[in-house]
Amino acid sequence: MSGVTEETPAAELERARESGRPVARLPRWERHLGWLYLVLLLGAVAWLAWFPRLANAYNVTLALTVLLVIALATSWNILSGFSGYTSFGHAGFFGIGSYVGALLIFYERTSWIPAVILAGFATALIALVIGYPTLRLRGPYFAITMLGLSELARIVVTAWDSLTLGGQGVYLPILRLEPPVTSGPLIDQLRNVVHNNQNYYAMLLLAVVAIVVSYAVGTSRFGLELLAIRDDELAARAMGIRTTRIKITAFALSSFFPGAAGAIYARHVGLIDPPSVFLVIWSIRAIATSILGGQGTILGPIIGAIVLTLVTEKVWETDPNLYQVFLGGLIVLVVLFIPGGILALLQDRGWLPRTRRI
Amino acid sequence: MDQPVTNEAPVLSVDDLSKRFGGVQAVDKVSLDIAPGRITGVIGPNGSGKSTLFNLMTGVARADSGAVTFQGTDITRLSSDRINRLGIGRTFQLTRLFGKMSAIENLVVVSRHDRATAERNAAELLDLVSLGHVRDEYAENLSYGQQKLLEFVRLMMTDPSLIMLDEPFAGVNPIMERRLLDTMRAWLDAGKTIVLTDHEMAIMMEICDDLYVLDYGEVIAHGPPAVIRDDERVMEAYFGR
Ligand SMILES: Nc1ncnc2c1ncn2[C@@H]1O[C@H](COP(=O)(O)OP(=O)(O)OP(=O)(O)O)[C@@H](O)[C@H]1O
Ligand SMILES: [Mg+2]
After folding, report:
1. Best residue in A225, A231, A242 to probe B by mutation, most B CBs within 10 Å?
2. Do B164 and B147 sit in the same domain of this protein?
3. ipTM summary value
4. Which partner from A261, B99, B206, B239 sits 20 to 30 angstroms from A181, CA to CA?
């Protein structure tokens, strides 16, 4: 019988504090945090909704990119951040969604809004089908398999040119802008600005839905089950958690957003071809963003998206290859020096409460 | 040697179960019956196959051949989550908690009740084993003894009818040991069945109603403690090599 001594509660707490390890303390006002976030979110949405009236086209596009990365990183985090199953599939879903959306519009099967929604559901459906075999693979094998499947999707889309127009790409009709309305009834002004910035508003809505879904997952038992899978999948199963079902559900939820985002993106840029949308960098961007902000949290990917996009947009514009190198280096640095990401840094400083609800 | 401890039908039977790892026959044609409402012990020297047997019985590992029947259902090929949902709960030789989740989250996550009920049950269980003050602490920050207790009560969250404990007393101090024993007694009073392995011979002899002795994956002896104590082969397996 080896000597493990009983500690008093106070001694234990002291020990935990001295060791500098994270202590999961919930402040009293923690239960009101949900409301605080709601107010913050509504405030941010209101400001972003007004933003196109204040900013020039360049900055609106920059904001659209931030929102796109929020949607990508937040949704990536739903499976990979919470459950630890790192996926390189986001590029594939983004590409497939771009094509589903673009082709529906190109062949005039639906108008653009249903096209975006259908693109999201198409990728979620694909995730349901491929999730069953692939999510049985452990960590690195799953990551590599998703990388391969993304590449396979690019090859199929390129080869199937009777439907997808192959390597020549798909051109979408240019949005006819209305002359700006800056006077008269507010509702007319609003309708005018929404019309002229449709893709921006669609991306804003998508990012908000992604955040709401992420919050719902992160604060639910479903989210706890994903964390349990991350911490010890074997024990989770042995305790009756239906790990396969949970991983596949998270995968499908997670893949809706890159699909829908791809369709909006296709409309925003007006021309897509396989190399530009099936680009591994879309996966890496989602991953780097989540890691930088703090994966497995709700706020982390949002913080990461804002910081990383604003800091790196210039690099991306100059040279996408350089950008890739930059992101690679950044991931290494963050993992080495701030393993919990920016969020953990803020929590360690005591600027944010240490609570599961973010 | 195969005298049943009760006349009741066994809750769980193992028939000719085998498992091989490379060149090691970890479990070799093991058959055993678990009597309801009793404590059945599985003992044997290090590496004799106790943990592997537990893993096979709970779906954590796949048997090469043989069968496990629980309350009339063949569970040999079921996944461990399905087996758990049929009412078999277990702990692990090395505690397997969800390290980056708080103590209370470790319990809530396995509950099958709605969130509010789950949180209430979890809080009660934590208080029961005096872990209430560390409910929001990450499991990995708890002391060894606290982790053992937490794994114990996590097991109770799903209210299993058959409980399998792999070396619950290893590395545990006398106070904690009493707590574990009290908890096990309460389980028996609630009509549950316990299967247990441990190297603490004194405790095993005292609390088990029925003992199986494994050596090199084989059952070499079976019977009540009084009989096992005097079995030559058992003594030889433990000391004679
Ligand atoms: N996953 C595995 N891969 C390979 N060999 C294994 C594996 N698990 C167990 N073994 C081997 O099977 C045999 C039985 O091991 P097991 O852990 O079941 O014994 P045990 O009776 O629980 O031992 P202990 O008292 O030390 O816990 C040992 O020889 C062990 O090395
Ligand atoms: Mg063992």
Report:
1. A231
2. no
3. 0.91
4. A261
